[in-house]
Structure formats: structure tokens, C-alpha cells
Amino acid sequence: MGEEAIAAALDRALSSVAIHHHQANGLGRDVTVARRVIRAEIEGLEQLSKTLDSRFGVAVDLCAAARGRLIVTGIGKSGHVARKIAATLASTGTPTQFVHPAEASHGDLGMIGVDDAILALSNSGESDEMADIIAYSRRFKIPLVAITGGRRSTLAEAADVVLMLPSAAEACPMGLAPTTSTTMMIALGDALAIALLERKGFSSADFQRFHPGGKLGRKLLRVGEIMHKGDSVPLVAPDAPMSEAILVMSAKSFGCVGEAGADGTLVGVITDGDLRRHMDDRLLARSVDRSCTATQKRLPRPISPPRRSV
Question: Is residue 44 situated within a structural domain?
């Protein structure tokens, strides 16, 4: 290899080292930023926990007393948080609906009834879009709970009860992007939802009724909701010939057949795999009970319908 080729290879190697060093430094800075943001939001949540007082209980009282729905509203980032809170409340037993404050001013106020209660979110408490929904709540004496950081704001002054956000620093270095404040709002919304859930004695069965899908839904399913019953279950009597057992197994398409005693108790199970492993020229003529003891899964463990399926 000539001197020029050696020099070129060395340059490439040095460039690669420099790039990896730059990427490593960049990654380190990114992790530092992430940890700073998380610490800032943790500090905000700790302040929120310390400043909670009896007004939280009053807010829960107002929400629980509503004979209609709990209406959750907010604009901007507070609006996105409000949608999440509404979804959590609805899935944990509190009838809830999100109403966009701008749309409320154009007819959606009709979604809010006198038997409802309103949970309004605004960090400043001075969002112009909230004015009509606030005025509507006062005009028709609809209970209004505010989550805000503006102690003397229009929203706070109008509300029946105020859940104050402490003046914790936003995680944004400019102090502008809603970060810590929205995290505290979400936490307060979760706290309200769980407090209401516990007051109502909301159970896992209730949760499953509202959440039948996904991994959570499957986890909460009861055996009785998915079990087969009656004639759909492949069963034969102990004295039935194996030829009949095979016909029942094929007709019911379960890949197995159960041996049931005179009282209906399941005493054994034969699978199609069992048949293949024990097949001989006398199998079909034998009775299920006498000739297939070695084939059957004897004394299967039953499970009752109220038990969880997983």
C-alpha cells in the first residue's frame, strides 16, 4: 500500500472516531435534558401533593352529586389533557363527556344540562374561549370545578371550587411550553377519577364492562363469559363405544371429547392426539370407559364460571 493510500485510510479512521465521539456526546446531552425534564415534573407533582387540601374533597363531592354527566372542558394543551381526563373518568364509572369550549359557543352548550357538573381546565384561567361556558354554568347554576394556576383569574373567581396548581417551573428552558403544568393537571384528573371510583365501590367487573377490548379486557374476562354450554360441548357416556366418541369429537370440532358420568360430572378427556398415539385395530370397538384409560386425561381439574379466565 502506497503512502497516499495509507494517509487516506488514516483520515477515514480518524473521521469515523470523531463522528462516534460527537454522537456519544450528543446522546449524553439528550439524556441529561430528559432527566432534567423528568426531575422538574416530579418536583411539580411533589408541590401539588403538598398543597392539596379540603377543596379537593369538595370537588369530589360536587362531581359525585351530579345526576347527569361530568362535563370536562379546556382549550389548547389543557384541552388535550381534558380529553384524557374525560376518558379516564368515563372508564372508571363516572359518566363523562368532553365539550370543546369554542364549539360550545356555537351550539354545543346544548350538550350541557342543569343536572351536569363542569370540570374546567386552564393554566392561566384567562382563556377567552372559556368565557361562554363559564357564563353558561353561572346562568344555570351548574356546579363548576376549576383546575387552574391563576389564583385570581376569571375562571377561579367564577368557580364553585378551585383546585390550584402550584407555581412550579415548566420543564421548558424558556418556561413557555406547557410541560410541568400539564403533568400536574393529568395527575389531578387521575386523582379525581380514582377518588370517585373508590366512593362508588367501582369493581374490576364494572371496569371490564366498560373495557371489553385489549389485554385489560381479556385479563378481566370470567370463565362463564367464554365457556361453551349444553349441547355445544362434546360429551359421551362412559359406556359409549370409541366409534361414537370419535364421531362426537369430529362433529363438535373441539379436537377432544369428554367422558361424563351419570350425574354430568366430567371424569376424563380424550384428545385427537391421544387417539393417534394409541390407535390399534381394536380401538373403535372398545367402550370409552373400559378401553381407553391409558388414553384419557383422567380427573381433569374443573374451573367455575365466576373465575377469571386468565
Answer: no
Are 230 and 195 within one domain?
no
Residue 210 grid coordinates: 366498560
Q: Given pLDDT bands bounded at 50, 70 and 90, which one contains residue 13?
A: low
Of 202, 221, 222, residue with least CA distance to 91: 202
Strands 235-236 and 256-260: parallel
3-state secondary structure of 153: coil
Distance separating alpha carbons of residues 65 and 244, to the nearest angstrom? 63
**Domain co-membership, 207 together with 230:** no
45-78: pLDDT as tens digits: 999 999 999 999 999 999 999 999 999 999 999 9
Instruction: Give the CATH number for residue 273.
Output: 3.10.580.10
Alpha carbon 29 to chain centroid distance?
Answer: 33
39 in a domain, yes or no?
no
Q: Is 105 in the same domain as 210?
A: yes
Task: Classify residue 107: in a domain, yes or no.
Answer: yes
Nearest CA among 254, 262, 246 for reference residue 295 = 246
Tell me, yes or no, whether 247 and 180 share the same domain.
no
- Within 8 A by CB and 6+ apart from 233, the residues are 252, 254, 258
Query: Do 83 and 189 share a domain, yes or no?
Result: yes
Regarding whether 265 and 205 lie in a shared domain, the answer is: no
Question: ∠ at Cα 85 (163, 164), nearest 5°?
Answer: 10
Same domain membership, residue 169 and residue 200: yes
Residue type, 142: I
DSSP tag of 106: T
Domains identified in the chain, total number: 2
Contact 42, 169 (CB under 8 A): no
- Which range has the worst mean pLDDT, 74-83, 170-179, 219-228, 240-249? 219-228
Q: Assign residue 264 a region: left if phi > 0, alpha if psi is -120 to 50, beta otherwise?
A: left
One-letter amino acid of 278: H
Strand order in the sheet with 96-98: 96-98, 70-74, 117-122, 144-148, 161-164
Phi, psi of 51 (to 5 degrees): -90, -5
